[in-house]
Design brief:
The chain has 559 residues and is an alpha/beta fold. The protein is 32% helix and 18% strand. It is built from 17 helices and 22 strands. It has helices at 32-35, 53-63, 95-103, 105-112, 126-138, 179-189, 198-205, 213-219, 250-278, 293-302, 318-330, 349-359, 369-378, 410-418, 436-439, 485-498, 519-528; strands at 4-9, 16-21, 24-30, 72-75, 121-123, 143-148, 155-163, 166-174, 220-222, 228-230, 282-286, 307-310, 383-386, 400-404, 428-432, 440-441, 454-456, 473-474, 477-479, 502-507, 533-536, 539-542. It has a seven-stranded mixed sheet with strand order 19-15-20-14-13-21-22, sandwiched between helices. It has a five-stranded mixed sheet with strand order 3-2-1-4-5, with helices on both faces. A five-stranded mixed sheet has the order 8-7-6-11-12, sandwiched between helices. A hairpin with a 2-residue loop joins strand 2 (16-21) and strand 3. Helix 7 packs across helix 9 (250-278). The model is unreliable at 552-559 (pLDDT under 50). Bound molecules: fe (ii) ion.
Length: 559
């Protein structure tokens, strides 16, 4: 069987495209990395027609596929099951306009991808696309599957059973009940950006006491049929809204802690129900709520499943991949599991060198750039690391990363300053896979996609202070030498110098901007942010007079 399927997510936020050829995911990218607008576009009804045009064009170009050669375009939303009909375009929320635009998506797509036959576009229900991005990408022929987000067409969750590769939907929660929307509305109440900054609420929760947990148990609860009750709450009853420029207070952290704990409890109840109904030992998860790594770890520790796999692009961008995999399977393909999130753009050394020559910046090509980067880090330099194909999904996983020495407690503040972020936000560690169990526990290992938090073991708390969150946890990325050889060499070299196989890893971007994707973004970031060195493929750029210092030969290497 041969088939070429383009997946497209366009309806709400995080527009993205993915290309699956003969069951193999060959490319996947988010539009924000191209248009340089965080989350790609605003999730309003009248932007539904906007497509991930550049991401889609790049996926096709990367694989050398013309739009006319596509067997199918899988669109991760089905207007036929939307709550509001398309005739109601002037309704209060303009929801009918969303339906209308989604119905017309085949024509928008045929315009955007000249040569595409509009009849090849297939609508895949939003939560089925999320679900497929989990169980098909995980490569689980049998498992339970759970998706939770803000909303799809008419639902906010799907609980299902996968057997012989086929999904059977067991339960779906109808709107307005939505765990994702409850969390989103709290995000807005706390002065953060809705449908974007939910992870800030999760970070803030660690500073609070869940003093309203009992009250929340009355209004947010699993309903015993695979769904739940969760209507929007009047947060003013608990703590006043935070307006622009205002600081959070204890009550805000307590409210975040209460909602976070309640989310975890409901998730555990849903998992129990699903486990009982399916009898499976593995659970695959996706949907924006599955990016809540604190809840994921609690589910891993206390939940009924032995194994938990979470799609790294768990938010809506991942539905582009899920929809494509789902349709590829329907076309008779055997779908290959996902083994890496590095599905975006990459450049050859020659291409990178021509970018550097054009920028007329001094650069070196050391024998091993990973070794040089480790030397800069060990001297407490901050390194911007641009290596290989970019990540699909919100986490930097050693392709577009900003790195620092975890031993220096001041590096948390320093990196938050570089990125213009709030100081309560933690930064995360990357660690050699084979060393992770010595340093971290309380979550699954390996953990290659930063989707779980782990406890930092007592004896390491003082050794890697800049990556330990206020509650003694860290959201780790374990690095496999086979999958990420350059990062693994850098970690080994850093350990040789310092005795610590851990490096701070945060995404390579500055405040409010999408992650760096192409060489121009990387050079702009190096030019405008106080980083000491930039690694681009095999090349190294040092900031004169900084911790990047001189070449390695001049240095005495410890150990
Ligand atoms: Fe979603």
């Amino acid at each position: 069987m041969t088939s070429t399927v383009l997946g497209v997510n366009a309806v709400f936020h995080d527009p993205a495209a993915a290309l699956v050829v003969d069951g193999v995911t060959v490319a996947a990218a988010e539009e924000e990395r191209f248009n340089r607008r965080k989350h790609g576009k605003d999730p309003v009804a009248f932007s539904t027609w906007e497509l991930p045009e550049r991401a889609a064009a790049w996926c096709l170009e990367h694989a050398g596929v013309a739009p006319s050669e596509l067997d199918a375009v899988a669109y991760s939303y089905d207007p036929a099951i939307a709550t509001t009909p398309s005739v109601d375009v002037m309704g209060g929320t303009w929801e009918g306009l969303r339906t209308l635009f989604a119905e017309r998506a085949p024509f928008f797509l045929a315009t955007s991808l000249p040569g595409l036959d509009a009849d090849r576009v297939r609508f895949v229900p939003h939560h089925v696309a999320h679900a497929a991005s989990a169980y098909l990408a995980a490569g689980f022929g049998r498992c339970a599957v759970l998706t939770l987000d803000g909303r799809g067409e008419a639902t906010s969750s799907l609980a299902g059973h996968v057997a012989d590769g086929c999904l059977r939907v067991l339960a779906e929660q109808q709107l307005p009940h939505s765990l994702g929307l409850v969390y989103e509305s709290l995000t807005a109440h706390l002065g953060f950006r809705r449908a974007s900054d939910e992870y800030k609420v999760m970070a803030l929760a660690s500073y609070g006491v869940p003093r309203w947990l009992d009250e929340l148990r009355e209004t947010i609860y699993a309903s015993g049929d695979g769904g739940f009750v969760a209507e929007p709450l009047d947060w003013e009853r608990f703590a006043p809204a935070i307006r622009a420029g205002e600081e959070w207070a204890e009550e805000h952290a307590d409210l975040a802690a209460s909602v976070q704990r309640r989310l975890e409890e409901v998730l555990l109840d849903l998992a129990d129900w699903l486990h009982e109904r399916t009898g499976e030992r593995r659970l695959a998860m996706a949907g924006g709520v599955a990016l809540n790594c604190v809840a994921n770890s609690r589910l891993w520790r206390e939940g009924p499943f032995d194994e938990l796999w979470v799609q790294p692009a768990a938010g809506d961008s991942g539905t582009a991949l899920g929809a494509a995999l789902y349709v590829a399977e329907q076309l008779g393909e055997r779908v290959e599991p996902m083994t890496s999130a590095a599905l975006g753009r990459g450049w050859t050394p020659d291409e990178l060198e021509s970018w550097l020559d054009r920028a007329a910046l001094p650069y070196e090509r050391p024998d091993d750039v990973a070794e040089e980067a480790a030397a800069v880090l060990a001297r407490n330099g901050v390194v911007a690391w641009f290596q290989g194909r970019s990540e699909y999904g919100p986490r930097a996983l050693g392709r577009r990363s900003l790195m620092a020495d975890p031993r220096n407690p001041a590096n948390l503040e320093r990196l938050n300053d570089v990125k213009g972020r709030e100081q309560f936000r933690p930064v995360a560690p990357m660690v050699l896979e084979e060393r992770a169990a010595e340093i971290f526990d309380g979550g699954p290992l390996p953990s290659p996609y930063m989707l779980f938090t782990h406890r930092v073991k007592e004896e390491w708390l003082e050794r890697i202070p800049s990556v330990v969150h206020v509650d003694g946890t860290a959201r780790i990325q374990t690095v496999s030498p086979e999958r990420e050889p350059a990062v693994a060499r850098m970690l080994r070299a850093f350990e040789r110098r310092t005795g610590v196989p851990v490096v701070v890893n945060t995404s390579l971007n500055t405040a409010g901007r999408p992650m760096v994707d192409d060489p121009r973004d990387a050079l702009e970031c190096f030019g405008s942010a106080p980083v000491d060195a930039l690694v681009m493929g095999p090349f190294l750029l040092r900031r004169p007079g900084s911790a990047a210092g001189e070449r390695l030969e001049a240095e005495v290497v410890a150990g």
